[in-house]
Design the sequence.
């Protein structure tokens, strides 16, 4: 996992980095930790991070501005906000901040927060075998659709296209059936990422301005439309 720690005070960066490193070492988990005191360098970069610890009050860019930047190209970044002030609560909630930590955060709170973050990460990702030996994790909500590709499957996400060893039927078994529906025998579509539904086409939104199209079987159209409307009505509550 990639972890970012951004605080304008170097001793704070070093302290949190030490605790995060100890956590991943004790849990035997791989980690790459980046410590930064200059928020402008983070905002100028587009390196994706799985987890970020951000001090709210920093010169140049606040922690919330850094969070907005990180989430703009990786909406799955788990953000911890470090602050002793409650005045930032509303803005932080708008960004779906994962957790608040008091300043300075102690070892118990860091470890507890990472327990929750790792559990959330594991619950919302799936392991993807790309060639029988290489494996990577992808976020379920980032999947646009999965389709048959020769004797394997092609997983199309918001940012990537990946060949998987799993079959369509195997994907149906492991993905949440309320979110992933089959509009055609050769496709599984993520209802959460549908931008528009036409009579014969499903338009899915990517992270950039592009969209992708998936065919829908006329035989399945009515059932698929009902499932889609049921899903988005539940999402609104």
Sequence:
């Amino acid at each position: 996992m990639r972890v970012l720690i951004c605080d304008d005070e170097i001793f704070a960066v070093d302290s949190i980095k030490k605790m995060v490193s100890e956590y991943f070492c004790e849990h035997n988990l791989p980690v790459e930790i980046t410590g930064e005191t200059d928020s402008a360098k983070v905002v100028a970069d587009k390196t994706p991070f799985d987890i970020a610890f951000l001090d709210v009050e920093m010169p140049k860019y606040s922690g919330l501005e850094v969070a907005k930047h990180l989430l703009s190209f990786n909406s799955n970044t788990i953000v911890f906000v470090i602050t002793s002030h409650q005045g930032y609560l509303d803005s932080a909630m708008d960004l779906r901040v994962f957790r608040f930590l008091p300043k300075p955060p102690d070892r118990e709170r860091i470890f507890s927060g990472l327990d929750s973050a790792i559990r959330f990460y594991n619950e919302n990702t799936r392991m993807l075998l790309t060639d029988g030996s290489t494996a990577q994790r992808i976020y379920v909500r980032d999947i646009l659709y999965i389709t048959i590709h020769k004797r394997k499957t092609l997983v199309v996400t918001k940012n990537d296209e990946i060949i998987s060893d799993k079959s369509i039927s195997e994907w149906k078994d492991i993905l949440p059936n309320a979110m992933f529906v089959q509009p055609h025998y050769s496709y599984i579509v993520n209802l959460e990422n549908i931008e528009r539904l036409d009579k014969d086409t499903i338009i899915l939104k990517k992270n950039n301005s592009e969209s992708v199209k998936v065919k829908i079987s006329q035989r399945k159209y009515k059932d698929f439309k009902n499932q889609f409307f049921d899903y988005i009505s539940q999402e609104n509550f």
About this structure: The mean pLDDT is 87. The longest helix spans residues 10-26. DSSP finds seven helices and 15 strands in the chain.
